[in-house]
Design goal:
Arc Repressor Mutant, subunit A; 8% strand; alpha+beta; 3 domains; two-stranded antiparallel sheet; flat; 20 helices; 471 residues
Length: 471
């Protein structure tokens, strides 16, 4: 019979405090969303106040209640010191720019101009929602009909879906709503002026698409019975079409259209980059002292209502304190992180020459700031900096590195730029193979393996040499 043994174990478990949780949530928010978050907190927490001329900071707290745990209202928050002291109506002028309109929002807007029944409009809207970011419908119509029946409780069939898809395929950008690349290109070529080159291009796409994708031009010449000059003009029509019609509207950083306010502004002063963090509409916050009075009055009562009042006000005071402190910590963390990035990429921030970007990963900035990699990741997420040479997402400055033959580390961004320039300058009748690109990079002093060149070429959406060949 086995003996059952009991033992006590002491384990150390790290739990996040409410302040840490609040700070983590705020770190990820860009400026505009932070403003919205603050306004929401002001509406939901009566203890939280925005400092105005009507509630100056030097009001004394009630004498009988200690709020030493709530220092947020006895000093100017650190995030207020980042800009010059200005009157309330003198908001600093700042630049904004818009992230490209959402692809699906654009199509929904066009759908609004179509004369359709409510039922048909609902189905068409569902089809738009099923398009991927490149503008393609990847599901077959039979499966789509089942989805609509299940999710919208609307019975439809392939014929009706085909008709509605045809309407969507007339929307801008041309080529949207296609089910494959061939259909996408055909939609675009049919919309072009009807000349000989357009007619030849349409015939190639309709009847010789496989030969075209494999660059078997001799077979196309034989089947179409045309000369090389006509074939070249037809192919030139096709290669200038857009294989990703959705990509020209959708944005890689945000699926929703929105106005972006730079979280940081960098200027050159006396030839040196200087970073500031505009406050914009982030108000100065403080604890509402009237609720300290309520706490004082209620604390002296032993009734049930009095105790409940104490609990309620204490919770709201805690929440206000954590929120105010979390904003302070957010601003300090953002400032320290951005300064570390500028210090690391100092040469780049002088003139914006991307060849001066050093290889930099999250760990590099984490080590410089003493922060966790996860914290740096949250800071970098959806944040922008306005510089004297453009507006950039912070993610732009991060990339891995490779060694040159001189033992220097260079950014993969620099390697990709050289690859792109080399391929653009190549003889299109004899495009450079990956092995030849390795040779080009080696001659420039970059030690790169063929498989690495292939990986970077694919990341740049550049096809292999055979598919870049032109006649």
């Amino acid at each position: 019979m086995e003996m059952i043994k009991q033992s006590l174990q002491q384990k150390q478990v790290q739990k996040l405090s409410p302040l840490q949780i609040q700070t983590i949530k705020l770190l990820e928010l860009p400026t505009l969303e932070l403003e919205q978050k603050i306004q929401k907190e002001l509406e939901e927490n009566p203890v939280l106040d925005e400092v105005t001329d009507d509630n100056p900071e030097d009001d004394e707290l009630p004498k009988k209640v200690s709020l030493s745990d709530y220092p947020a209202d006895d000093q100017t928050p650190s995030y207020k010191t980042y800009v010059n002291n200005q009157g309330k109506d003198l908001k600093p002028q700042y630049n904004t720019f818009s992230v490209k309109e959402s692809f699906h929002q654009n199509l929904e807007a066009q759908l609004g101009y179509c004369h359709l029944t409510p039922r048909a409009r609902q189905i068409a809207s569902f089809i738009i929602g099923m398009l991927d970011d490149d503008g393609y419908l990847r599901r077959d119509l039979e499966s789509l009909a089942d989805d609509i029946s299940f999710r919208l409780n609307i019975e439809t069939d392939v014929n009706e879906l085909e008709d509605l898809l045809g309407i969507i395929q007339e929307f801008d950008p041309v080529g949207v709503g296609a089910r494959d690349l061939r259909e996408c290109l055909l939609l675009q070529i049919k919309a072009k002026p009807h000349d000989q080159a357009q007619q030849d291009a349409q015939e190639i796409l309709e009847n010789h698409f496989e030969e075209f994708t494999k660059k078997h031009y001799t077979k196309i010449l034989s089947k179409m019975k045309i000369d090389e000059d006509r074939l070249k003009k037809a192919i030139d029509e096709i290669v200038h079409l857009n294989p990703r019609p959705g990509g020209q509207i959708d944005d890689s950083y945000n699926d929703q259209a929105q106005q972006v306010v730079p979280d940081f502004v960098l200027e050159l002063k006396d030839g040196k980059p200087v970073m500031t963090m505009p406050r914009f509409n982030v108000p100065e916050l403080r604890v509402n002292k009237r609720y300290a009075d309520i706490l004082m009055d209620s604390a002296s009562k032993s009734t049930k209502e009095g105790k409940e009042a104490v609990t309620f006000v204490k919770q709201k005071l805690d929440s206000a304190k954590w929120f105010i402190e979390a904003i302070k910590q957010r601003q300090r963390t953002l400032q320290n992180t951005m300064n570390a990035i500028i210090e690391f990429q100092y040469d780049f921030f002088i003139d914006g020459d991307e060849t001066k970007l050093k290889p930099m990963v999250l760990k590099n900035i984490a080590e410089r700031t003493g922060l966790d990699i996860s914290t740096i990741s949250r800071v970098v997420n959806c944040k922008y900096i306005q510089t004297h040479f453009g507006i950039y997402p912070l993610k732009y400055f991060f990339s891995e590195g490779l060694m040159t033959d001189r033992g220097e580390e260079v950014s993969t961004r620099e390697i990709k730029k050289i690859l792109t320039e080399s391929i653009e300058a190549e003889n299109k009748s004899k495009p450079l193979t990956d092995e030849e690109l390795v040779t080009v990079l080696t001659e420039k002093g970059y030690k790169v393996a063929r498989r690495t060149v292939a990986k970077y070429r694919e990341q740049l959406n550049i096809p292999i040499a055979r598919l870049r060949k032109e006649i």
